[in-house]
Amino acid sequence: MNIDIRKHIISNFKGSETNEIKESIEASIKEKDEITLPGLGVFFELLWTNSDENNKEYMLNTLKNSLK
User: Fold this and answer.
1) Which DSSP string corresponds to 15-35?
2) Are 13 and 24 in contact (CB under 8 A)?
3) CA distance 35 to 16
4) What DSSP designation does 67 have?
5) Per-residue model confidence as pLDDT tens digits over 5-46
6) Does residue 53 contact residue 61 with C-beta atoms inside 8 Å?
7) What is the pLDDT of residue 11?
8) Number of domains the chain is built from
């Protein structure tokens, strides 16, 4: 069985309200369940691909500073 995680995550959240997406992200982080990592990765991919260079630089600096 071949599952396209990207399509599945996008389909599950299509039409969701901002607060629903936020709650899902926060719950995934709070639970520290590694099964949610692919979904968070899809969210990050969408965020990255739809961001301008300034926002990408901000994200990179935030990640770098968080790794200290």
Assistant:
1) T--HHHHHHHHHHHHHHT-GG
2) yes
3) 21
4) T
5) 999 999 999 999 999 999 999 999 999 989 999 999 999 999
6) no
7) 95
8) 1
Q: How far does Cα 24 stand from its chain's mean position?
A: 10
**Predicted TM-score of the model (pTM):** 0.85
Residue 1: predicted pLDDT? 62
- Tokens matching residue 49: 């691909």
CB-side exposure of 10: number of CA atoms within 13 Å? 10
For residue 34, the enclosing domain spans 5-66
Burial class (CB in 10 A: 0-12, 13-18, 19+), 6: middle
Query: Tokens for 18?
Result: 């901002």
What is the amino acid identity at position 15? G
